[in-house]
Amino acid sequence: MIVVFGSVNIDLISKVERFPHPGETITGADHVVAAGGKGANQALAARRMGAEVAFVGAAGTDNFADLALAHLHADGVHLDHVATADGVTGTAFITVDANGENQIVLSPGANAQVKAAALDEIVTAAGDSLLVQGEVSMGETEKALAWAKGRGMTRIFNLAPARPVSTKLLSLVDILIVNEEELRQVAERSGLHGGASDVVEKLASDLGLGVVVTLGAQGALAHVDGQTARCPGFPVDPVDTTGAGDAFVGAFAAALDAGLRLEIAIRQGCAAGALACLKQGAQPSLPRRDDVEALLGNAGRFEDKRS
């Protein structure tokens, strides 16, 4: 089982030909309201890959709360530990340009009230996983990681959005997942320089954990437990890249939770991330296992390549 401790948002998405300059007003089209939040997105992505998933987070008392959780409920994510917090549900204001690239402004709302104490009610087993991100309190996230370590769980931290984190928090992490910009920021704070491959390996060695970096259209690179794996990107014509990173993380975590080898897990993540670029909105774009297997061209290969 994967326990996801994190954020749930409503995404307000506007399509534009190009991003506005400072002080400029432009006209957009195809305004969309969709469920999002990195925690919720990754929980749904893992669930759609076949993992059993429990989500721990908080939604507000506004009219957006039910919509924010609708996809998770429909797909069978366990929501017994989602709190109702006073105020509004977290909101992401997303602008997507003609190339499918995005800019995002995040208002935390109820996510600021997510508490690690809610995890105490969840029954887990050694070998289960905890997946956390950077959209809720780092203090509560650190408590969640300590909780999972005490239960022998695999701890995966997607440091997104990038933010300073303590050495103590990182000492509780088994696998750190970042994108190129997040890797650059972590590397700078650690005094590391060089290409992605060198930085990933050195960072993994210095921090004593596994490091995975997503490289956009170029795929992903991982260095975990002394093993290095790389997956080239799958060529797609992107509509919206908003959900790609979360699709990768959820699918990668689901593969590890199922006992698959690192090189298979990273390939599964890359395929899911590519497919998520083909639809608008984060959660509506998250692919199902059959879609990922079809893209990889070998349905059932995951079951045959367990470690």
Span between termini = 18 Å
Instruction: Indicate the structural class.
Output: alpha/beta
The major pleated sheet works out as: 9 strands, mixed
Low-confidence stretches: 299-307
The number of helical elements comes to 11
Neighbour order of strands in the largest sheet? 5-4-1-8-9-10-11-12-13
The dominant shape is globular
Radius of gyration, in Å, reads 18 Å
What is the strand content?
15-25%
Output mean pLDDT: 92
User: What's the count of strands?
Assistant: 13
Helix-strand sequence:
EEEHEHEEEEHEHEHHEEEHHHHH
Approximate helicity band: 25-40%
List keywords for this structure.
13 strands, 11 helices, 307 residues, 24% strand, alpha/beta
Description of the structure:
- This protein has 11 helices and 13 strands.
- It is of the alpha/beta class.
- It has a 9-stranded mixed sheet, sandwiched between helices. Strands 3-2-6-7 form a 4-stranded mixed sheet.
- Helix 3 (138-149) links the parallel strand 8 (129-132) and strand 9 (154-158).
- Helix 1 (38-48) runs parallel beside helix 2.
- The protein is globular and about 50 Å long.
- It starts with a strand and ends with a helix.
Layout of secondary structure:
Blueprint: E1 2-5, E2 9-15, E3 29-36, H1 38-48, E4 53-59, H2 65-75, E5 78-84, E6 90-96, E7 102-107, E8 129-132, H3 138-149, E9 154-158, H4 167-170, E10 175-179, H5 180-189, H6 196-207, E11 210-214, E12 220-224, E13 227-231, H7 244-257, H8 262-275, H9 282-285, H10 289-296, H11 301-304
Parallel strand pairs: 1-4, 1-8, 2-6, 4-5, 8-9, 9-10, 10-11
Antiparallel strand pairs: 2-3, 6-7, 11-12, 12-13
Helix pairs in contact: 1-2, 1-7, 7-8, 8-10
